Amino acid sequence: MNQILELFSYDFFLNAFLAAIFAAISCGIIGTYIVSRRIVFISGGITHASFGGVGIAYFMGLNPIFGAAVFGVLSALGIQTLSRKTNIREDSAIAILWSLGMAVGIIFIFLTPGYAPNLMSYLFGNILTVTSLDLSLLAGLSVILMLVFYLFYNVILYIAFDEDYARAHHLPVNFYSGVLMSLVALTIVFNIKVVGIILVISLLTIPQAIAGLFSKQFKTLLFLSVGWGFIGAFVGLLVSYFVDIPSGASIIFTLVVIYAVAKLIIPSR
Amino acid sequence: MKELLKIENVDFSYNGQLVLEDVNLKIKEQDFLGIIGPNGGGKTTLLKLILGLEEPKKGNVRFVSDDVRSRVGYLPQLQRNDLKFPISVFDIVRSGFVPGKRFWQRYTRDENMAAERVLEEMGMIDFKHRPIGELSGGQMQRAFLCRAIVSDPRLLILDEPNTYVDNRFENELYSMLSELNERMAIVLVSHDLGTIASYVKTIACVNKHLHYHPSNVITPEQLAGYECPIQIISHGEIPHTVLKHHNHSHESNS
C-alpha cells in the first residue's frame, strides 16, 4: 500500500492518475450513449479515421491530436449525413472510412522527412506519458460532457431512444445528433493517448457491459460506467507499472477480467 | 366540428415511384378515422406526411394552427419487440412531455402524476420501473400508447396498434380508444379491418389513391363506385365482417 502512495509523489504518476479519472468520466458518459444507441461500429470507424488526421498533422508539423480531432469530427458528421441522405449501406460506408483513415495516416507519416514518429504510442497509447496538454483537453472535455448530459438529459434520452418519434414532434434531431456525434469523436481522439487507437473502443464498451450487469437504467448506467471505468483504468495502471507491461493493454485486460468475474458472480436476470 | 388538418392534392413519390397521387383528406375534431389498404399501398407514407417526417412532392398538408400541429400524439408501428435500450416504462411515458419543454427543464410534479395516471388507466402501473426490454410486445405497445396520450394531444395517430397485441387486450385497446375519442381526434392505420370496423366512425381506403367513406358501413353498392379492395362491414347485434373480393381499378395485376 505504501508503495502505491509513494507513487503519487511522482509527477508522471499523478498525471496518469488524473488521466485515468478523466478517461473514465468521458468514456463512461459517451460509451453509455453509443452502446445504448448501438453505434459502437460507427465509433470504431471514427477512431480509425482519426488516424488520417494524425498523419496529416505530422506531415504539416502540427500537434497530431488536433489533426486527429478535426478528422474525427468531420468523419463523424460525414457518416451521419451519408447514412441519412444516401442509399449507401451504412456498414460499408463505415468500413471504407475506417480503412481510408488508416491508409491516409500511414501515407503521410511515410512521406514525412526525417525520423519516423513513434507510431506505437498512437496505436496502443501510454497513460504514463500523457502531457499536460493532453490532460487539460481531457479535463475540459469531461466538464463539457457532464454539463451537456446534465442540462440536456431528457432531450438526449428522448432522441437516443426514438429518433423518428422526436422528428415527428419537430425537435431539431439533426442538430442534437450532430453535437453528440462530435462529442463522441472528441472523446475518442482525446483518449487515444491513454489506450491508443486500437484499444479505445474497449474503454467505451467494457465499463458499460459491466454496468449493464447491475442496471438497465440509462442514468444509473452513466454513473456505474464511469465508476467501473475508473477502477479498470487505475488497477490497470498499477499492474502496468509493477509488472512492467504496456498500460493500454493492461487497462483493457483488467476491465475484461472484472467483467468476467462479475458475470460469473451476478445471477443473470 | 372544427377542422384540425387538411391534406390537399398531395402527390408523393419514393425512388421515382408514385406512392400517393392526388390525395385529399380533412381531419376534424372528434373524428375517428380508420385508414386501411394493402401493404405498400401508401398508408404509412400518408402518416409520415401528416407527421412532417416526409414532405409532399406536390400539394400540401396544413394544420389549422401551430397549437394543433404541436399537439399530435403518435404511436409508431412496433418494428421489433426486442428493444434493449436501457430505459424504464415511466421514463418512456414521461418523455411524451419533452417536445413541450425547454431542454434544461425537468419533469414537474403534475407531469409525473399525469404519467402515473395514464399508466394506471392502461393497466401498466405495475410495470412503471421495468426496463422496456423486459416487456412483452403487447405491454410495449401499451407503454408507447401511454407516451402518445400523456400530454393530452388534439390528434392521436396510431400505426398498426394491434401488432404484437393479443386478442384479449385488442378489444380492451379499442374500447379505450373509443373513450379517448371523446377528448381527441384519432387516426388509426391498419391492414386488417376485422376488429376496428365497429369502433371507427369513418374509413379512408388508401392504395395510391385515397377514397373516403363517410361512415364505417360500406355497402356493396358503394364499393362498386369506390372500387376499394376491402372487407365489407355491417352492423348487427355483434359486429361482424363480410368478405368480398373485387378488383381495384388502380391496381396492376402483376
Condensed summary:
The complex is a heterodimer of chains A (269) and B (254). Helices cover 81% and strands 0% of the residues of chain A.
CATH evolutionary superfamily of the largest domain in chain B: P-loop containing nucleotide triphosphate hydrolases
Q: What's the SSE pattern of chain A?
A: HHHHHHHHHHHHHHH
Number of strands of chain B: 11
Residues in helices of chain B, as a percent range: 25-40%
CATH-scheme architecture of chain A:
Orthogonal Bundle
How would you classify the quaternary structure?
heterodimer
The termini of chain B sit apart by 43 Å
On the 0 to 100 scale, the average pLDDT of chain B is 82
Helix content of chain A: over 70%
| Range of strand content of chain B | 25-35%
Instruction: Please name the fourth-level CATH homologous superfamily of chain A.
Output: ABC transporter involved in vitamin B12 uptake, BtuC
Please tell me the CATH architecture of the largest domain in chain B by its name. 3-Layer(aba) Sandwich
Write down the CATH class of the largest domain in chain B. Alpha Beta
Number of helices of chain A: 15
Shape of chain A: globular
**Largest sheet geometry of chain B:** 6 strands, mixed
Model regions low in confidence, pLDDT < 50 over at least 5 residues of chain A: none
Radius of gyration of chain A: 19 Å
Q: Indicate the CATH topology of chain A.
A: ABC transporter involved in vitamin B12 uptake, BtuC
Trace the largest sheet of chain B across and list its strands: 5-6-7-3-8-9
The portion of residues forming beta strands of chain A comes to under 5%
Give an overview of the whole structure.
- The complex is a heterodimer of chains A (269) and B (254).
- With 269 residues, chain A is mainly alpha-helical.
- Chain A has one domain (2-263): ABC transporter involved in vitamin B12 uptake, BtuC (Orthogonal Bundle), CATH 1.10.3470.
- Helix content of chain A is 81%, strand content 0%.
- Chain A is built from 15 helices and no strands.
- In chain A, helix 3 runs parallel beside helix 5 (90-111).
- Chain A is globular.
- The mean pLDDT of chain A is 91.
- By secondary structure, chain B is α/β, with parallel strands linked by helices.
- Chain B folds into 2 domains: 1-71 and 153-254, P-loop containing nucleotide triphosphate hydrolases (Rossmann fold, 3-Layer(aba) Sandwich), CATH 3.40.50.300; 80-151, no CATH class.
- Helices cover 26% and strands 26% of the residues of chain B.
- Chain B has helices at residues 43-51, 66-70, 89-94, 109-121, 137-149, 167-180, 220-226; strands spanning 3-14, 17-28, 32-36, 58-63, 72-75, 155-159, 185-189, 202-207, 209-213, 232-234, 240-242.
- Chain B is globular and about 45 Å long.
- Chain B starts with a strand and ends in a 12-residue tail after the last strand.
- Mean pLDDT of chain B is 82; it is low at 222-227 and 229-254.
